[in-house]
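Can't paste images in this forum, so I'm doing it all in text. The chain is below; anyone willing to post the predicted structure tokens underneath?
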Amino acid sequence: MTRQFTGTNDYGPNVKPCMKTSLVFLAAAALLFASCGSDTTTVDAGGGDTVPPDSVPEPLGAGPYPIATLDITISHPDADDASYTISCLGDTATVIGSDEIVDQRACGVLAEPQVKARLINGAPSDQECTEQYGGPDIAHIVGTFDGEPVDTTIDRVNGCGIGDWDQLLSEVLPTALGLTEGS
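Text version of the structure:
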């Protein structure tokens, strides 16, 4: 017995019953191929386009340096005051107003935790210092460091201040004039 196709059925007009299996197979294959993609893409959570991970830019400020802007004024009784600004923005380093301070080295030193602590918290109150005088140089540092305010003074009136100037902050502060005939 042969069945005649009448042109309509549950699958829509002009769809033969034997095509049911073909449609199901094609739909399954389409889903399978659609789910097989490159694992090197990510989908934007907002429903946007897919973006390869390597092309996603680093967030602003990402890099080896802290986010800091420091205005530094150096005073000595036998010289004019010198002022300059160090700006570190994570991946960029800039010094404006000084030829002696190297921007990348200054921002590299500022990335050290003990330097950050000294600038934000000031000198430790329980610090024991040697009694030696390194000259009348004074550095006043103000600004922000990773969102924290900075307002500190570094002087050379004892071994702690000399150590801060010559070692801890050697890339941030210029060479001290130290003792001169008039001081």
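The CA atoms of residues 39 and 52 lie 9 Å apart. The first strand starts at residue 42 and ends at 43.
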